[in-house]
Write a structure and sequence with these properties.
It is a single chain. The protein starts with a strand and ends with a helix. It is of the alpha+beta class. The protein has two domains: 135 residues, Alpha-Beta Plaits (2-Layer Sandwich), CATH 3.30.70.580; 114 residues, Alpha-Beta Plaits. The longest helix has 31 residues. Its EC number is 5.4.99.12. It is an enzyme of class 5 (isomerase).
């Protein structure tokens, strides 16, 4: 069977990350369980040629996570969704060349972070992001010892009480995006100076209390993964299904927010 790549969106909040782990629910478990239920996969192994674009952390969501493997022609995104939980939806697919690898062939990964910051100084946040942009060694923003030199693109847009931070690169070290958020939030609040960004990018390590905190995972979304050799074709039925199920989850979240607003505003 030829390899096929699938775009997968998921609400990461119920999951302990993307990659399979013992005794906890993961997105990868949901995908492989669906393939077993569909008869594409036997046992506990993975399909031939299987790989994913990346490993998102616990509670991190995705719009364009990408998994690829040798798949039968009938396995459309809509067919995939028939056995997936509502928190995970395949919505597009692409024929892939025989040598395709979903991890190694990605040339760019883009993340968005929805930072609640009604009192943050937008200009200071943008200035911090600008100083982080370009090629740098981000070893002080990760626990990884390798893969810390990256060429970063950054952007920021105000949306009411939120700042939507966008960062893109060919790849990211562990926790790098969330520590970027922690750094720019500290600068935007006035807790740290802009000069702290230069110190973070310096060769000398930051240890202990001097290190950069990791921002919470829930507001982070893997927004896009770029593959120059692939042309993804959205599946109309799968797109409609994804919009329906995530729309329902949005209503649930908005309703929960109204309840907590009532409690917060009613206490005198």
């Amino acid at each position: 069977m030829p390899p096929r790549a699938f775009r997968v969106a998921y609400d990461g909040r119920p999951y302990s990350g993307f990659q399979r782990q013992p005794d906890v629910p993961t997105v990868e478990d949901a995908l492989l369980d669906a393939l077993r239920a569909l008869g594409v996969l036997d046992g506990d192994d993975v399909p031939p040629g299987y790989a994913a674009a990346g490993r998102t952390d616990a509670a991190v969501s995705a719009l364009a996570q990408t998994v690829a493997f040798e798949a039968p022609d009938w396995l459309t995104p809509a067919a995939f969704n028939a056995e997936l939980p509502g928190t995970v939806r395949a919505w597009a697919s692409a024929d892939a060349p025989d040598d395709f690898h979903a991890t190694h062939d990605a040339t760019r990964r883009t993340y968005r972070y929805h930072l609640y910051g009604p009192t943050l100084d937008d200009a200071r946040v943008r200035a911090a992001l600008d100083r982080l942009a370009g090629e740098g060694d981000f070893h002080n923003l990760t626990t990884d010892d390798e893969g810390t030199v990256r060429t970063l693109e950054t952007d920021c847009a105000r949306d009411g009480d939120f700042l939507v931070l966008t960062v893109a690169a060919d790849g990211f070290a562990r926790h790098m995006v969330r520590r970027i958020v922690g750094l720019v939030r500290a600068v935007g609040s006035g807790e740290s100076s802009l000069e702290r960004v230069e110190r973070v990018l310096a060769p000398e390590p930051l240890d202990g209390p001097a290190g950069v905190p990791t921002a919470p995972a829930t507001p982070l979304v893997l927004a896009d993964v770029t593959y120059p050799r692939l042309a993804f074709d959205p599946d109309p039925a799968a797109v409609e299904s994804a919009r329906d199920v995530f729309g329902e989850r949005r209503v649930e979240a908005l309703t929960a927010a109204r309840v907590t607003d009532d409690l917060c505003n009613g206490i005198e």
